[in-house]
């Protein structure tokens, strides 16, 4: 397919070709799962996959209160891989139409490979993961462009990482009916469609090589373009980020789920929820999917309370587009803090007396002409049920250069370089970066 219309026709056909059923089920009725009688933790009887445990988080700041919460613990490192091939000189990405039980639209566009360690080692005794060899053992026709261990949602996962890989191939690749080659220009269009390109695709797309995106976000400037003039050089940014990590040093301890305060287990409904109805619930689902390696299974899922807001404030500085980023510490972050977007929160979780996060109100009040990107994207549908965020890029011409100490300005090129390093840029910022890199002229003067 060479255009968006061709893609949507193919995608609709794949949706009609399969049968899916997701049934809410009490946690205590999930096949293969049990609640540990001593701790209250929810675990799989095989000891694999993942578990729901408790976490206590104590921030470093003396005036910041400690809290406890349920959290997903998944020690396994999965693979998120995109296979790239050029047809008539145009880069194409091999993507799949994949069902996940938590997807609002059930079927979304996934990477070539999206598999946990248990999946691709076939713990579930299901079918083999297609195309996995290009990423585990690249052949002579394969060239690895990008390979990094990247974090996932630090509010919901404890130290969770996946291996993000982009491999270009010149080999002949048989294409299964649930897969298609998407031209890179068409992918840029699809990233503007609500709840279509899944989170696993977006995090890998953020690491695409520069010659594929054509955005000049690598070391060399675009032809005919002056050298980059960032507000801060690399040494200054590293100094800022290291200082933020020192300020945000915290203590976190796994605790039995039954000792998590402010949360309760509703045995009638078979779920775990916060006493104020905020944040999220832990629910159960039974799943039937004839397109998956295993046609049916049961599992717990994290169901967020409401839609979040993820945004970059963008500003032209010295003739170069900059993004406002923050050093953000979350309970499950792998290494203290990561670089996040200007705004990253769920406004519905804020108590009436709570201080509003910096720049949230400016983003929400942006005039239509200020909004450069505005799309609702789903989060990882394999663990999160109907989780979605509104992703925005807002022109912040009126935002002062002076920002709070946990914030700084970076060019798109600087953030792209940082995003190719594992555990440095959080998954929300990487998702938005993948979208930013599709904007026309985003790295140059406007």
CATH topology of the domain at 234-250 and 306-436: Nucleoside Triphosphate Pyrophosphohydrolase
Strand tally: 24
Percent of residues in β-strands? 25-35%
User: What's the end-to-end separation, in Å?
Assistant: 32 Å
CATH superfamily of the domain at 234-250 and 306-436: EvaA sugar 2,3-dehydratase subunit
Count of helical regions = 10
Q: Do you know the CATH architecture of the domain at 234-250 and 306-436?
A: Alpha-Beta Complex
In the CATH hierarchy, what is the class of the domain at 234-250 and 306-436? Alpha Beta
Report the sheet with the most strands, covering strand number, pairing sense and barrel closure.
7 strands, mixed
* Oligomeric grouping of the chains: single chain
Which regions contain 5 or more consecutive residues with pLDDT less than 50?
218-226
Mean pLDDT: 92
Summing up helix and strand content along with how strands pair, one would put the structural category as alpha+beta
The helix fraction, in percent, is 10-25%
Region (Disordered): 207-228
InterPro entries: EvaA-like (IPR005212), EvaA-like_sf (IPR038153)
Pfam families: Hexose_dehydrat
Protein name: NDP-hexose 2,3-dehydratase
């Amino acid at each position: 397919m060479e255009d968006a219309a061709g893609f949507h026709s193919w995608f609709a056909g794949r949706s009609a070709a399969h049968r899916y059923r997701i049934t809410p089920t009490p946690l205590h009725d999930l096949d293969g799962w049990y609640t540990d009688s001593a701790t209250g933790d929810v675990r799989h009887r095989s000891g694999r996959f993942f578990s729901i445990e408790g976490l206590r988080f104590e921030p470093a700041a003396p005036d910041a209160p400690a809290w406890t919460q349920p959290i997903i613990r998944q020690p396994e490192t999965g693979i998120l891989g995109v296979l790239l091939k050029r047809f008539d000189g145009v880069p194409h990405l091999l993507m799949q139409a994949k069902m996940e039980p938590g997807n609002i639209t059930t079927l979304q566009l996934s990477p070539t490979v999206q598999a946990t360690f248990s999946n691709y080692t076939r713990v579930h005794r299901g079918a083999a993961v297609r195309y996995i060899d290009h990423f585990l053992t690249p052949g002579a026709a394969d060239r690895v462009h990008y390979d990094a261990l990247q974090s996932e949602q630090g509010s919901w996962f404890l130290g969770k990482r996946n291996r993000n890989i982009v491999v270009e191939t010149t080999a002949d690749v048989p294409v299964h009916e649930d897969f298609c080659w998407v031209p890179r220009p068409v992918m840029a269009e699809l990233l503007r469609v609500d709840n279509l390109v899944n989170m696993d695709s977006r995090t890998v797309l953020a690491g695409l090589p520069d010659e594929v995106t054509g955005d000049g976000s690598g070391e060399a400037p675009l032809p005919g373009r002056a050298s980059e003039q960032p507000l801060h050089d690399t040494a200054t940014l590293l100094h800022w980020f290291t200082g933020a990590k020192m300020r945000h040093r915290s203590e976190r301890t796994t605790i039995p789920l039954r000792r998590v305060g402010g949360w309760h287990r509703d045995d009638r409904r078979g779920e775990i929820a916060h006493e104020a109805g905020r944040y999220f619930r832990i629910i159960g689902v039974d799943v039937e999917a004839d397109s998956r390696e295993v046609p049916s299974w049961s599992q717990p899922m994290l169901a967020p309370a409401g839609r979040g807001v993820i945004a970059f404030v963008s500003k032209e500085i010295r003739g170069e587009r900059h993004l406002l980023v923050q050093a953000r510490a979350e309970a499950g972050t792998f290494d203290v803090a990561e670089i996040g977007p200007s705004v990253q929160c769920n406004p519905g979780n804020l108590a009436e007396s709570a201080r509003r996060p910096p720049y949230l109100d400016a983003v929400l009040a942006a005039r239509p002409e200020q909004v450069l990107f505005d799309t609702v994207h789903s989060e990882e549908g394999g663990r999160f049920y109907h989780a979605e965020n509104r992703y925005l890029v807002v022109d912040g011409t009126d935002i002062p250069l002076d920002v709070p100490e946990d914030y700084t300005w970076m060019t798109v090129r600087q953030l792209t370089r940082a995003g190719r390093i594992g555990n440095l840029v959080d998954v929300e910022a990487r998702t938005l970066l993948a979208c930013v890199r599709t904007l026309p002229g985003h790295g140059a003067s406007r």
